[in-house]
Amino acid sequence: MSASIIDGRASAARLRKRVAERVSELAKFNVVPGLAVVLVGEDPASQIYVSNKTKQAAEAGIRHFDHRLPASTTTADLRSLIRQLNSQPDVHGILVQLPLPKHVDAQSVLAEIDPIKDADGFHAINVGRLVLGEEATVPCTPLGCLILLRETQPQLAGLRALVIGRSNIVGKPMAHLLLQSDCTVTIAHSRTRDLPALCGQADIVVAAIGRPRAVSGDWLKPGALVIDVGINRIDAGEGKTKVVGDVDFESAVQRAAAITPVPGGVGPMTIACLLMNTVNAAVRSLREPSVPRLMPTT
Ligand code: NAD
Q: Where are the alpha helices (DSSP H) in 87-158?
């Protein structure tokens, strides 16, 4: 058996198209969705992520406000900037690129964001709402994973899902989204015993570990759906590097029913979901029943 490959680039392009359509509808009410992006320091990976986010925002018709600050920026400076952005009516979404420099108290900076403008869904209010099953802004990467899963398997109810990783930005929100989809959810982490046995029971495996090819294909239940969140840069010989996921793709593709590739799987969905969250914040600020929020599945 060879798995079908879940095309995250195509799915993200469809979502960005729906975002752009909603942006056009908002224009009729003189609302242009605005995203403020805060980047602190010179981390090369963060700089690439931020420029991809602002480029795709602009392509969808979302205005972006860039705040690039030196690595020496203090927690107080950042909180003051966030308060200013909270009060700016043309800013609907605020994104603080993580990681922040070590001397900054990231939690207190994220807590300063108005939950309505919390484009990444990291604020405790949104986390709490997600856990309670209330309307919430959901973190972009797990939301993207859920969209890919639903497009691949519309009937998730009753399936056994294994989420590997318990971070606040991927693993924990992913587990809650799967629980809301009526899956039977297990969360594995660095202290979990016998991960291969847990994998062997799972109809869905979401790997968010940050270790190259940590999940071997022969651990998987035949016919499993596999979502690989990992982005790991490894040595490819001759002075070159390449990006691989947390799942050993070559062996997993022999056993799974469907699998996301790395790159080209979850990664593109993350930015598309950020744009969706920003447009939905602008929709909420308009309070116009004829312009509804974009839902992950419509
Ligand atoms: P993290 O380091 O915060 O969390 C990793 C988790 O993996 C931890 O909860 C840890 O307990 C668990 N873990 C570590 N070793 C393990 C092991 N041997 N067995 C089982 N569990 C183990 O990482 P994160 O921020 O959640 O990111 C995970 C991966 O996803 C990284 O590769 C990151 O680059 C990638 N990522 C991708 C996107 C995207 O857009 N595609 C977005 C965010 C993160």
A: 106-112, 124-132, 140-152
In whole angstroms, what is the distance from residue 218 CA to residue 265 CA?
A: 21
Residue 147 shares a structural domain with residue 256: yes
Does 48 lie in the same domain as 109? yes
Give the residues across from 188 on adjacent strands. 164
Residue 180 lies in domain: 140-267
Q: Are residues 92 and 68 in the same domain?
A: yes
Among residues 56, 117, 118, 120, the one annotated as catalytic is 120
Longest dimension (CA), the chain: 58
How many domains does the chain divide into?
2
CATH number reported for the structural domain that contains residue 263 in this entry:
3.40.50.720
- Judge if 154 and 43 occupy the same domain: no
207's enclosing H/E stretch is strand 204-207
Nearest CA to ligand 1 atom 13: 190
Q: d(Cα 180, Cα 161) in Å, to the nearest integer?
A: 12
Question: Is 298 inside a domain boundary?
Answer: no
Ligand 1 centroid vs 233 CA: distance in angstroms?
14
Whether 162 is in the pocket of ligand 1, judged by its Cβ within 6 Å, is: no
C-beta of 166 in contact with ligand 1 (< 6 A): yes
pTM (2 decimals)? 0.97
Q: Which atom of ligand 1 is nearest to the CA of 210?
A: 32
Task: Give me the tens of pLDDT residue by residue for the chain, a chain 298 residues long.
Answer: 699 999 999 999 999 999 999 999 999 999 999 999 999 999 999 999 999 999 999 999 999 999 999 999 999 999 999 999 999 999 999 999 999 999 999 999 999 999 999 999 999 999 999 999 999 999 999 999 999 999 999 999 999 999 999 999 999 999 999 999 999 999 999 999 999 999 999 999 999 999 999 999 999 999 999 999 999 999 999 999 999 999 999 999 999 999 999 999 999 999 999 999 999 999 999 999 899 999 987 4
How far apart are the CA of 164 and the centre of ligand 1, in A? 8
